[in-house]
Amino acid sequence: MKKYLLDLTVCGVERLNGTHVVLRLTSQQQLPPMQPGQFVEVKVEHSPATFLRRPISINRVDMANNELWLLVHAIGDGTRAMAALKRGDTLNCLLPLGNGFTLPQKAGERCLLIGGGVGTAPLLYYGEVLRENGCEPSFLLGARTAADLLQLELFERIGATYLTTEDGSRGEQGFVTAHSVLRQETFDRIATCGPKPMMMAVAKYAQDKGIECEASLENLMACGLGACLCCVEKTDKGNVCVCSEGPVFNIKRLKWQDLK
Amino acid sequence: MARLEVNIGDLRLKNPVMTASGTFGYGIEFADFVDLNSLGGFIVKGTTLHPREGNDYPRMVETASGMLNCVGLQNKGVDHFCDVIYPQLQHLDTNVIVNVSGSTPEDYAECAARLAQLDKVPAIELNISCPNVKDGGMAFGVTTTDAASVVKAVRKAYPKTLIVKLSPNVTDIVSIAKAVADEGADSVSLINTLMGMAIDIERRRPKLSISTGGLSGPAVKPVALRMVWQVARAVDIPVVGLGGIMDASDAIEFLMAGATAIEVGTANFIDPAVTTKIINGIDQWLDAHGCKDVTEIVGALRS
């Protein structure tokens, strides 16, 4: 897919809680096609300590309104500077990068999208596209507390949404992999994004059940284009760049030894 | 429009702007952002005789005005370059230069001999300065005798333009530059990354998988510029300058310090189109200052 370097305009800022912000970006020109699971490398201005671009997954693409949504977790200088952006500000974006989630060939597939923390971000767009393609997406979303569960009303509009929190303040208490839906329902396909221990636990579940499973990794990156070889993950083909070969991988390709 | 052409030995560059090894992939990765043919040349990822997996993740840490990396020369080997990558590059109308690394002088020479057979690769850059592998690279670049031994072996095997990339992690870079020039190098490029380190204080562990890595970016520019200035005054072969160049004014500083050409490295990660801006920026600066030819400013510091 052709990649672009675009100055996008912030057309909306939605603060979800103290540390999570959705930036809605638009352009005078038509935004290029973007697939669920792909990401954007954002140039952060007004943050002297931030040297490299910040890779941010695509949260949603609203083609009708020519909008790209990025969900930012403000945890460092760079992401805090992004979260402080206002309507009308400009953001230089390199996009779309990497390879997205697989779109099932046949309609009616039951897909479970499992996300933790800010890792739920790309699952929203993936769920929407699955729905448009005649599949039945469900969501299993986990967070520390109820306040950390993000964009629930949007997920619930797309499919059945199951929740876990570590403190039990919303949904079932515990980690996503302990949720009862995993024992009660069957699925044809799983996709996961979030903290690596969570994704490894999900991958183990999928492997044991023989379910196709993809995981979206977020290794530290520099270029985002497959040039610097910094963000590598061990796979069946040796060390490969997460930015250009991923960030979405079928778990069969990953050398997650703990699965065995 | 000033004249931008420069020469490195027998190598003619359309303009003095090249890209640094390991920061521009095989060029193809940047084709959506840069007309590769507009570059003076580009130097592809460090290539070794045999494939290398590189070091474990994590390989990169962002630092103040720069970054550390310990990629460790991950590459698929010279045969892969010749058979798979080269066919995709041979139609280009620019200088495709291959960065070569190895563990022994014989490795370097054999790799260079393979590359000498490729018509559209007019030069190699010998990496005797990679700080991230135990069994090769920098070990050769830190003493005059070892540096000379590698260059001597490669010079016999490689008749085309030979650029030798120097390590800044030495006491006296001028003596290394002189040693490789004496063995017949056509040019020296400098600097490679500076050895550095970063620590995660919560885990009390180094942030990089092999503890140390090479520092690049604007943080190293003053050091690089000083070394280019010292070396350019001391050797008779052309110098290629690199280290933290982010824009045209940085590039012009290196030219004034004595570099005949420059390489843009880490800046490609921040702005994949930066090389085009640097070429245009040099051109505009020359016009604005009444210079007809870029060579007018090479080493042209006022005393």
Summarize the structure.
The complex is a heterodimer of chains A (260) and B (303). Chain A is built from six helices and 15 strands.
For the record, give the distance between the C-alpha atoms at the N and C termini of chain B, rounded to a whole number: 28 Å
The number of E-state strands of chain A comes to 15
The CATH architecture term of chain B is Alpha-Beta Barrel
CATH-assigned fold name of chain B: TIM Barrel
Describe it for me?
The complex is a heterodimer of chains A (260) and B (303). Chain A folds into 2 domains: 4-97, Beta Barrel (Elongation Factor Tu (Ef-tu), domain 3); 110-259, Nucleotide-binding domain of ferredoxin-NADP reductase (FNR) module (Rossmann fold). Helices cover 18% and strands 35% of the residues of chain A. Chain A contains 6 helices and 15 strands. Chain A has helices at 77-83, 121-132, 152-158, 181-184, 196-209, 242-245, and strands spanning 4-15, 20-26, 39-43, 54-62, 67-73, 90-97, 110-116, 136-143, 161-165, 172-173, 189-193, 212-216, 232-235, 238-241, 248-250. In chain A, strand 13 and strand 14 form a beta hairpin. The longest helix of chain A has 14 residues, at 196-209. Chain A is globular and about 50 Å long. The model of chain A has no long low-confidence stretch (mean pLDDT 96). Chain B has a single domain (6-297), classed as Alpha-Beta Barrel (TIM Barrel). In chain B, strands 3-4-7-8-9-10-15-16 form an 8-stranded parallel β-barrel, surrounded by 6 helices. Chain B has a 4-stranded antiparallel sheet with strand order 5-6-14-11, with no helix packed on it. A two-stranded antiparallel ribbon of chain B has the order 1-2. In chain B, helix 2 runs parallel beside helix 4 (144-157), helix 4 packs parallel to helix 5 and helix 7 crosses helix 9 (274-288). In chain B, 58% of the residues are buried. The mean pLDDT of chain B is 96. The interface between A and B is medium-sized, with 30 and 33 residues.
